[in-house]
Amino acid sequence: MRIRIDGTRAEIVDALFRLRLHFIVIGVSRAYPDRARPHHWCVYLTTARDRKPPR
């Protein structure tokens, strides 16, 4: 599954941390600048289809 994350660097880092708790992360793209909004970035996250098993 592919997930797109938009926002500032701090928002992206927070979202990546939270998503890693629930999904198996396969890969993360580089940060692409958002031309419409300054200081905003876009990252694509690739996850496995299955969720992480609960601890």
Topology as a string of helices (H) and strands (E): EHEEE
DSSP helical segment count: 1
Low-confidence stretches: none
Distance between the termini: 22 Å
How would a crystallographer describe the biggest sheet?
A: 4 strands, antiparallel
Binned strand content: over 45%
Number of strands: 4
Would you tell me the structural class of the helices and strands? alpha+beta
What is the quaternary state of this protein? single chain
Arithmetic mean pLDDT? 90
Shape: elongated
Residues in helix, %: 25-40%
Radius of gyration: 12 Å
What is this entry, summarized?
This protein has one helix at residues 9-22, and strands at residues 2-7, 23-28, 32-33, 41-51.
Top keywords for this entry?
55 residues; alpha+beta; 4-stranded antiparallel sheet; 4 strands; elongated
Please describe what this structure looks like.
The structure is a single chain. With 55 residues, this protein is an alpha+beta fold. Helices cover 25% and strands 45% of the residues. It has one helix at 9-22, and strands at residues 2-7, 23-28, 32-33, 41-51. Strands 1, 2, 3 and 4 form a four-stranded antiparallel sheet that branches. Strand 3 (32-33) and strand 4 (41-51) form a beta hairpin. The longest helix is centred in the first third of the chain and has 14 residues, at 9-22. The chain starts with a strand and ends with a strand. The mean pLDDT is 90.
What topology emerges from the helices and strands here?
Layout: E1 2-7, H1 9-22, E2 23-28, E3 32-33, E4 41-51
Antiparallel strand pairs: 1-4, 2-4, 3-4
